[in-house]
TrEMBL record:
Protein keywords: Membrane, Transmembrane, Transmembrane helix
Domain Transposase IS4-like: 6-177
GO molecular function: DNA binding; transposase activity
UniProt-recorded name of the protein: Transposase
GO biological process, alphabetically ordered: DNA transposition
Entries under Pfam families matching the protein: DDE_Tnp_1 (PF01609)
Transmembrane annotation, as ranges: 168-187
InterPro entries cross-referenced by the UniProt entry: Transposase_11 (IPR002559)
Source species of the chain: mine drainage metagenome
Length: 244
């Protein structure tokens, strides 16, 4: 219902909606096509439009994970099929364990193998498979940013008693997201995303320290990976101060 409300209230002709598996349906994609709204929708593995026999003719690396890819045209849009090779191994290992325990059969294992590690996306856009994959994963980056606000920063717990404090709380939350996405855009502009995430970049750039002992101040050794990242981004490392 909330999705219908969104479609009715706003002109989305020049927009592209990125949706997760829970919203995948042929009816939904047809409605978006009628409204001339672009879409990138992850599919459930049991949907009939998916052809697991499509040969994988492309590959790329996403956050250190090997991804095989393919693209084909269907009556509902362009079908992008991906295979995460690490996920494939993990899923097959878990399934084999189930067979050994007796909760599943060898025939079920053979039938399920074609789906291990597979991610299917239906889109109205004709693009390079890696670009579509990155666009879909960018949606997860937004969710991770809000998760970081709630879990890492505990921004879902205000304990505030007056309106001024609440306004300050939301202002700081806004700044947190602004900084997060500014760093994300910087990584993208230098071709580092999705090879490295915002969290990984911040971790690497925090590994240099200024050590103060009395009147003496010296820098710790800069890790090679941190130095290379800073050089690539064209930024200066500002060390954290270690206080004794």
């Amino acid at each position: 219902k909330s999705f219908d409300f969104l479609m009715d209230q706003y002109d989305l002709k020049n927009a592209t909606i990125i949706a997760y598996r829970g919203l995948s349906s042929y009816e939904l994609t047809e409605r978006m096509k009628k409204r001339k709204t672009g879409f990138i929708v992850a599919l459930r593995r049991n949907m009939n439009v998916i052809d697991y026999g499509i040969p994988m003719d492309g590959n790329f690396i996403y956050h250190g994970r090997g991804i095989n890819s393919s693209r084909t045209k269907t009556e509902h849009g362009y079908l992008y099929l991906y295979e995460d090779v690490i996920m494939r191994g993990e899923e097959e290992t878990n399934y084999i364990s189930s067979v050994q325990e007796g909760s599943r059969t060898a025939d079920q294992l053979n039938d399920a193998r074609k789906r291990f590690g597979k991610i299917s996306i239906l889109s109205s856009l004709l693009r390079d498979p890696e670009e579509i994959f990155n666009l879909y994963k960018d949606r997860e980056e937004v969710e991770q940013a809000f998760d970081a606000m709630k879990n890492d920063l505990e921004n879902d717990k205000t304990y505030l008693q007056d309106a001024i404090a609440v306004r300050g709380y939301f202002f700081i939350s806004f700044l947190s997201l602004y900084v997060y996405f500014s760093i994300l855009q910087l990584l993208k502009s230098h071709g580092l995303h999705p090879k490295i995430s915002v969290k990984e970049a911040l971790l690497e750039l925090s590994k240099i320290y200024a050590i103060t002992r009395g009147a003496r101040r010296s820098l710790s050794e800069v890790p090679l990976k941190s130095a290379k990242l800073a050089e690539t981004l064209g930024i200066k490392l500002y060390p954290k101060i270690l206080r004794n």
